[in-house]
Amino acid sequence: MAEESARVKAEEAFAPETLEAAKKLLTKRFKFIKKPDESLKRLARLGVRRVAADMVANPHRYERLEAESPLPEVLPLDPLDILRHDHQLPALPQVFLELQQAISSRSNSANDLAEIISQDPGLTAFLLRMVNSAFYSLPMQIDTISRAVTVVGVNQLSTLAVGTSVMSLFKDVPADVINMEQFWKHSICCGLIARRLCRITGQGDPERAFVSGLLHDIGQLILLQVEPERATAVHAHARAKDVVLFAEEKALLGFDHATLGGMLLRKWNFPYILVSAVLEHHQPKAGHKEAEPLLVHCAETIATGLGVGSSGEFFVQPPSPEVWDSMHFTPELMDEMVEDLDEELEEAFSILIEQ
């Protein structure tokens, strides 16, 4: 009863026309979810409130885009052609390569890792801000990388350092092609939700879950950076036809951004778990021994359902029933997943984007 009263009170805070517009948008966004369970229905209601608030704060984001007429032709593409041209891909910094070697080596120590990270003042400052934030909520102030490695853990901080350093590689994506602030808000939100879900369910590793969510749409950035006209044309087709973006990518290009992102991380020698989480975030394989691909798959559904940021995909992807059921979602758990999420997202966004 108290819960229903709180919901009604929250909805009364918005003008009727704003609330109606948000409900209409969410109904369309969930159109491919044919038989929602109670947790997905709760997600849609939470999405209505959040989108209504965003409509008031940022009305320009909800202006209708006119579809191009006629739609541009899109020729198929071999993803290997993109990955073979190293000069088109972001250049990996030396500290990134050394961190990769440290992760793959079983003999690395806390001091070894701290020495590598300390070569990059920007990465050092970023990791110290992250460790001292609510992301970890540690009871003490951490003022050196050596101490951070000791407290957080060698593998955990290595994963966080490598994953988040990728963000700085994508400075050249044209602003008129994609709103990078909204892209990273969606990606960070997906990472935070995957991390929360990891801790609630006891499945997977929190840092790996966060980085997997953070990088899940990296294939979009590669495509937009290397083939901006083709990528933009695919987005236009998906909007005009009201279809799921990754399905339209497969239809027009012959592959989707998840495949391209997974192939890129494999080329960069990322750990298998992170590669598979990115590769399968739309359609995870059955019987996974590792939890991260499943956590990111569910986190993507939740982040899109809430309308946090945008990677270019409008619709909520239908989650795999088997994977969704394995998380034992309930309406109450969905509430817990999004409680104080905006505050955590704002802090994480400020830390990651300022690095």
From TrEMBL:
<dbReference type="InterPro" id="IPR006675">
    <property type="entry name" value="HDIG_dom"/>
</dbReference>
<dbReference type="InterPro" id="IPR052340">
    <property type="entry name" value="RNase_Y/CdgJ"/>
</dbReference>
<dbReference type="InterPro" id="IPR003607">
    <property type="entry name" value="HD/PDEase_dom"/>
</dbReference>
<feature type="domain" description="HDOD">
    <location>
        <begin position="89"/>
        <end position="284"/>
    </location>
</feature>
<dbReference type="InterPro" id="IPR013976">
    <property type="entry name" value="HDOD"/>
</dbReference>
<dbReference type="Pfam" id="PF08668">
    <property type="entry name" value="HDOD"/>
</dbReference>
<protein>
    <submittedName>
        <fullName>HDOD domain-containing protein</fullName>
    </submittedName>
</protein>
